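Recap from last week: sequence in, structure out.
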Amino acid sequence: SLTSLPLCHPQLEGLCSFLQLSTCPEPFLVRFCSWLLALTPDLSYTSAAVLAEQLFLGRVLSLTQPPSRHLMAALTSFCSKYSHPLCRVLVAAVLQEPGEGAEQTKLMCELVEECLEPPSVQLVLSQVLEVPLSEKLLPVLQAVLGRQEVLPPELLDLLVLTLCQQAPAFATSLNYAKLVTAVLTAYQGQVS
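Predicted structure tokens:
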């Protein structure tokens, strides 16, 4: 069992490589994730992050069309217990990818809208606000706002500050205008 063995990073990465998890067929990936969820005790944060990277990172970054139902099922399953490490790995990588990354952006929106618990939604928001805003990230922010979660004051302040600072760059962006309207509507009591 993965949890009874005191595996360090290289050992766990070696095991993933031996099992060819990064390239295994997606139906197997779904079964493997179901097996992971049944393990007791739960995986450590670090082990879950290594597995998130091995299982999903390459697949998500190489998407050029919508993910298969098997890949979505595996992601949703993994997310149900290990959403924080998954976000740390996946979202960070997608944010650093140059270019449009349309499928990756859609996938992040879907995870935010349907899979993530509130603390992980806040993590995604804080990760997005750490990088310069781009048109591709606006739908992710819109998805976060669509959850209508209560945001910690410091995160809301950072969101408002970022939107204000970036306003000149998005003077002609319809998505940016929608985002500002959504912020003002959702948090009118806190935004002065």
